[in-house]
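Hi R.,

Here's the chain you asked about this morning:
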Amino acid sequence: MDTKPKKLYEKFFAIVPRHVALIFFSVVIMFGVALNHFTHIFDATLPTTYASGDSPMSRAEARKRPHPPGFYNVVHVVDGDTVVIDEDGIDTTIRLLGINTPETVDPRRPVQCYGHEASAEAKKLLSDTYIKLEMDPHGDAKDVYGRTLGYVFMADGTNFNLHMIADGYAYEYTFKGRHYKYQAAFKAAQKEAKAQHRGLWSPATCNGKKTAV
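And here is the predicted structure, written out as tokens:
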């Protein structure tokens, strides 16, 4: 007499006829394949940078926002130094030149000190509005990730890149020692922000260090 315990699938086949069991498992497999297929279709319809408060509907509404000639509607604020604008019905990602804010969305890196504050400032000033974009005459039009490089100016003429450095939300960033148009102004703004302990330069926040939180 065989006293060896039966495995679960052996018990299942002992109770259910084999042809019924095979039909059951075939249906389960087909359902799983179909579910995976439709999941990929659904994922493909989502924005490439999807965040809380952002949706295909809100982006569509942003594109319709009236704006002056030469300005672009902001359809999504990714973080403190990256935004997405509507350019003739196409989403164009803008990487702000000359600045670098603490990380919040890069999956390769931890969230850094003052990153949330920098993102919140960008969203407060750039969401639901339009901006003017200026390219740099000395640099590349795009970075290695295909993002358009430039300076963002708000409706009142404020250089947003400069504002983020001056108020301690961003570091001045010179890529590979290359000169850029507003380099002197950005470096001077950082020196002042550091001296006044603004934002991420404050000992009460990050003390200027890019530490993880």
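One quick note: Confidence is low (pLDDT under 50) at residues 33-53.

Cheers,
M.
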